[in-house]
Amino acid sequence: MMTFQPQFPQGFLWGGATSANQVEGAYNLGGKGLSTADVVEFVEPEDRTSMKIPFPSLDEIQRVLDTENDRVFPKRFGIDFYHNYKEDIALMKELGFKTFRISIGWARIFPTGVESEPNEEGLAFYDNVFDEMQKHGIEPLVTLSHYEIPLHLSREYGGFYSRDVVDYFVHYARTVFQRYKDKVKYWITFNEINSLLMAPYIGTGLVQDFVPEGRLLEAKYQAAHHQLVANAKAIEACHRIIPDASIGCMVIGMINYPNSPHPEDASAAHNDMQKTFFFTDVFTRGSYPFYMKRFFAEHDIHIKMELGDERLLRENTVDFIPFSYYMSGVSARPEQGGEKAGGNLISGLKNPYLEASDWGWQIDPVGLRTLLNMFYERYEKPLFIVENGLGAFDKVEEDGSVHDPYRIDYLASHIEQMKEAVGDGVDLWGYTTWGPIDLVSFSTSEMSKRYGFIYVDQDDYGSGSLKRSKKDSFSWYQKVIATNGEDLSSS
């Protein structure tokens, strides 16, 4: 019997992913305005009883701004990619990257979000970044909104809870499409759009003051509707301005297992999966899925839609589905107790069959293959894994080396399952690991949680030389890309 050997297709887009607010720094240079991420501060480890997801009031934001000199905002300094992008992109070239996912800082282009004319200095910065990528033969993969919007839009409008912000986003999207139409062919509108259900401020800019009393869940889904309309309008503009471009909208990808064979546990897992499928159903199929009608009725949710919204969603669907994958979850009927697993925004009960990262995230490469198949069976649209990686404590040896076999093991096991999914028939365009260079963590605003193949000499408070150096995983991933995923060995 012949043994089947799956292979990645030729032209597979290997690379890595970052976001503007986690790497750029220079928060007050080049005409940039404050973003929602610029007022998220570092939380000391001893104060972290769980992940701190801000959902501030306007008074709390003002208090932070009034006392900002006494606080630490790591996303304001990032790793100073703003001044080091040439060196960093050269390292990506050395790794062999085919693509590099970055995001544009919206407030670097429109400082408050409401300007009619863009900030030329901000546009020029990204021109330089894209030119540098082109020089090294690296294809840009660009996210328009990666967990940040101009802070002014959050404080004055409640972020995407307001319909007005849809128009501001579309104006921004059209501006950058027109500017970079000859430089960028792969676009993502929103990063992990389903995160807004757990983190409405981070995902949409929503703050407490704009939410009617007792109506938070409805407010989240209203903001979701506005983001989905903004996504459709951006897709329409992208296809008109850059006809040969591909554009998608990103979700947190996660598979949920039932806690037991109990039918109600299986139903709970199914319901948890629908929280993700709601978003992918809308932006892929072009309409609200049937199962949301009951959900909205049971939770007394009334979504305000404008005339033409349904047509917009129907006529402007995504070209591909980009998603992140870090872990799987365990779902159970409400009365079931059990130890909770760690997680970023979505988690569940602890799975006794899985190992976990230093931060308690459950490591499940087989779940990635399953999810790839689920997405492709459901939509038959090209898929793109735009985030996957292991956050860990890295030790710098006396000679400056960093030995990170745990990172190699994590990534190799996931790439192996990706290859199996390709063998299953899944149309997978590419893979960008999260944080190819150490960056400020989204969830904890710390540097101690490191993802990169490239070590950055900086601590949680911004101290350090910022020197870049290669970890053991650097040469390993270099080899993976050079062999198109055939050689995953650590030797």
From TrEMBL:
Active site: 387
Keywords from the UniProt entry: Glycosidase, Hydrolase
Gene3D superfamilies assigned: Glycosidases (3.20.20.80)
A single MF term (Gene Ontology): hydrolase activity, acting on glycosyl bonds
Top EC class for this record: hydrolase
Entry keyword Nucleotidyltransferase: no
Enzyme Commission number, as recorded: 3.2.1.-
UniProt similarity note: Belongs to the glycosyl hydrolase 1 family.
Protein's recorded name: Glycoside hydrolase family 1 protein
